[in-house]
Amino acid sequence: MSESGIEKDPLSIDEFRKVLSKQNKLYLLFTGLPANKVLVQFEGRFENKSVVWKACIRTVEDYSRNHPVSDDPSQFIDIKIENNIFNLEVALNIYQIDQAVIERTIIMIRKYKKLKAGRHEYCVRSKIK
Question: What is the DSSP letter of 35?
Fold first, then answer.
């Protein structure tokens, strides 16, 4: 395992399904809840094939603390594929990540039929105060 807790070498989709089945889970969570940033792995589809997503789901505020952003940063999905590893980063305009947010994010990614590599911003966030 890597220092983040997520496997460095990608598991095949069949191996990943076995791990999920053995643990009786729908996804693997590698950080505690609630949080501003979580690391998860889950099964999804990309370009019409089943893949294991290595995902970082975080709040826009958390992302903004660590990266230069505009005064009103947008939510985004960022997909990077390297050596058959499907990395996904999602920044959401919410206060905190909890189990319900993780599950809704997984559903959103699974339902999005035209996912493409790269960064995709959407919906300028409203100010959270």
Answer: B
Enumerate residues 6+ apart whose C-beta is below 8 A from 94. 59, 101
List pLDDT tens digits, range 95-110. Answer: 999 999 999 999 999 9
**CB-based contact 38:88 (threshold 8 Å):** no
Q: Residue 79: CB partners within 8 Å, gap ≥ 6? A: 46, 86, 87, 88, 115, 116, 117, 118, 120
Nearest Cα residue to 2 out of 102, 87, 90:
87
CA-CA distance, 118 to 49, in Å (whole number)? 18
Q: Encoding tokens for residue 26?
A: 């729908």
Q: pLDDT confidence of 65, banded at 50, 70, 90?
A: confident
Q: 28, 19 in Cβ contact below 8 A?
A: yes
Lookup: tokens for 74? 């947008």
Please report the beta strands in 34-127, taking only residues with DSSP state E, as ranges in sequence order.
Answer: 37-46, 49-59, 74-82, 85-92, 118-124
